[in-house]
Structure formats: C-alpha cells, structure tokens
Design a protein that fits this description.
The chain has 381 residues and is α+β, with helices and mostly antiparallel strands. It has 16 helices and ten strands. It has two domains: 126 residues, Reverse transcriptase/Diguanylate cyclase domain (Alpha-Beta Plaits, 2-Layer Sandwich), CATH 3.30.70.270; 216 residues, no CATH class. A hairpin with a 3-residue loop joins strand 2 and strand 3. Helix 1 packs across helix 3.
Length: 381
C-alpha cells in the first residue's frame, strides 16, 4: 500500500464512530503546534511529510459550509493512518492532515491522494458542497531555489513563526525604529570615516570601492549585501566555497590567528585580501556599508549574519532555521561570544537562541557589547 494513501477502517475492527472518538481532531492551536514539532522531527529523521489542507474557498464560511468542513474533518480523521494527524489549520475554515514520515514519489503520489480524498468526500458531502472544496498539498522540506528572486519558503508550513511575529508586533515596530534611527545616525556621523576608507581602497588597489554580493535574507529572500571591498578584483571564490563546505560539515580545522593561540574557524592566510582589506577586516570597518542595508530594511542592526547562496546549499535542514526565524543583522550573539572561534553548529545555536529570546532590551545589550568585541578583536581576522 502506498504510504501516502488514505486507508479505510476494517469493518471487522472498529466502527467509524468509535475510531473518531479515539482519534480526536486537533484544534487550531494544537494542530499548528504539531506542524512545528513535525518540522523538527523531519529535520532529524530526514523523512519528509506532506501537509494537506482542505477549505471551502471562503475566509468566513457560512454555517452550512462550516458543518460540511466538520464532516470532512471527521471523515479524514477516521480514514487517515494512525501515524497521521488531523486537525483544524484554521478553526471552522480549513481542515488539515499531516502525512508523516513518508517516501515522497512526486506528482503521481499526489494524484493518488487527491483521488482517494475525493472519493471519501463524495460520500459525505452534497454535490454543491463537494464542488466548493479546495485541496492543496505542502511538502516539507521544500526545495529552495537560491537563484530565484522570490521567497523560496512556503509560509503555510510555518504558522508558528507567523503567530510569533504577530504576537510581538509592538517589539517589531520598536526594532525597526531602532534600526532606522541607528543606521541613519551611523551613516551621517561616520561619513568622514566612509570617505577615508574609500580613498584608501581606491589608492591601493584597482576596482570598485564597495563589494556587492548576493546574500540570503530572512525566509530565504535574496538581497544585495554591501561591504567595503577588501579583496583584489577577479579573485577565485572556490577557495572560500570549499572551506565553507568543510566548516558546515564539521571538518574544518582552526586556522592560526595573530595574537591568540586558540585559532579561528576562518581563512586567515587568504591571498585574495589586500593590505588595506586585511586591516578593514581585523577592525570590522569593512562592515560599515551594511548600515545602508539596515536603512533599506534588508537587514537589522542585530541578527544572524546573512549567508551566501553556496553556504545555504551546504546547510543541514536544521541550519535553515537561522535564516527563517530572524532578520539578518550586522552584529549578534555570535559576534560578542567569540565570532570565528565558535564552530558552525554552535554559531547556529547562538542564532536560534537569539531568535527565541529576542527583545529590544536584548538588542540594546548586544549593541553596547559589540564595540568592545571589535576593539578586542575577539575572533576577528
């Protein structure tokens, strides 16, 4: 039997009513919480799941359509596998079933599921109601296209993140206000320093003053990331690409760094870096143009560092959460707790810790500690 298909109960075991009684239909809060938990299970097991949603195409269904949706929920609860979960994705508006730990075989399997669900619904609904039912399928994990210009993630699979953002709307408004005021002040007051750095770059190496690079922002949305150029033009990115792969896989060794014996998880003897660029990196002055990214709303003052596309391609599934749960930032917990002295998995854990505990007050504390970390050069190279 196809693991994605719906099965009917044996007439020799339980009646439909007894099965429905044993297998409760989860309410919206519980069902959405289970979607979040199933994502985490899928990250560990590497087995995908399918979320199937059924609705009547109305934001506010009539009473007769709400009754029809309740019939659908009961029918799906009775006929789904014991390992699957049935519940309300939106109370009295959209019914959902999670088919867990599946072997996904593509469009042919979805076609089979649609046929079996349709046959089940035909026996429970009037013809007019049946024709109103809309069925959609959402597969986790998604296939991310890093070359696309739009968000590659499916918001339907992350209702918990949407709810968290909505519940902290006042905090989000405060954070954005802090970003605007802080980045605007930095651009204005540091403009003389901007000019000096631009002049130093222009006089010591050929090429543009600013380095523009495609980075991945929150929810996987790409944007153009700005830094002062610290490398020679026309360099080979394969050196960094290969090191990043080893770093994410946990196979990278610490590189020796001037001034400390611990070493850092970073390329330290990179021939692509100019003499001025080495100083800019050591002092983090190459990061200053990112205040423009903050002003535009692509980044925040505080948050995880935005990765390059080839970095995300090497991510384990759970690593993706660092760019799903928070907007990227100029500084963060990673910067004040060791920077490149911390291995990749621990960096991700710090980013997730920040996303879970974030508040304006935490941002203020990180911002106040960042200058000290920069002056001491903790983990920088």
């Amino acid at each position: 039997m196809n693991v994605l298909s719906l099965r009917t109960s044996s007439p020799h075991s339980f009646t439909a009513s007894s099965v429905a009684a044993e297998r409760s239909i989860l309410n919206e809060e519980a069902f959405r919480r289970m979607i979040s938990l199933e994502r985490k299970r899928s990250e560990r097991s590497r087995k995908p799941f399918v979320l199937m949603l059924l609705d009547m195409g109305e934001q506010h269904p009539s009473e007769s359509n709400r009754q029809a949706l309740r019939k659908i929920a009961t029918a799906l609860s009775v006929t789904a596998r014991e390992t699957d979960l049935t519940g309300w994705y939106t109370n009295d508006c959209a019914v959902g079933v999670m088919f867990t730990e599946i072997g996904f075989a593509g469009s042919a399997t979805l076609s089979t599921m649609i046929t079996r669900v349709s046959n089940t619904l035909r026996t429970k609904l009037a013809s007019e109601q049946f024709n109103q039912v809309s069925i959609s399928f959402h597969v986790f994990p998604e296939d991310w296209d890093h070359n696309a210009d739009q968000r590659p993630t499916n918001p339907t699979l992350y209702p918990d993140l949407t709810k968290r953002d909505e519940s902290k709307w006042a905090y989000r408004v405060t954070k954005r206000a802090m970003d605007i005021v802080g980045s605007l002040a930095a651009v204005v007051f540091l403009s003389p320093l901007f000019l000096l750095i631009a002049l130093a770059i222009k006089l010591t190496s050929k090429g543009p003053i600013l380095f523009r690079q495609r980075r991945i922002g929150r929810h996987g949305e790409p944007f153009i990331f700005l830094k002062f150029r610290s490398m020679y033009v026309g360099n080979d990115a394969s050196v960094h690409r290969e090191y990043v792969k080893r770093l994410i896989a946990g196979n990278a060794e610490r590189q020796s760094s001037k001034g400390n014996g611990e070493g850092v998880y970073k390329l330290t003897k990179d021939p692509r870096v100019t003499r001025v660029g080495a100083f800019l990196r050591k002092t983090s002055l190459d990061e200053l143009p990112q205040f423009i990214n903050v002003l535009k709303g692509e980044m925040s003052l505080v948050g995880p560092r935005p990765p390059v596309p080839y970095e995300v391609e090497s991510y384990d599934l759970w690593h993706r959460r660092r760019i799903l749960e928070a907007k990227p930032g100029i500084t963060g917990l990673w910067q004040i707790k060791g920077r490149s002295r911390v291995n990749f998995d621990d960096m991700v854990r710090l980013d997730l810790q920040y996303a879970r505990t974030w508040s304006p007050w935490l941002d203020v504390k990180i911002l106040f500690r960042t200058p000290g970390a920069v002056v001491l050069g903790e983990g920088a190279h």
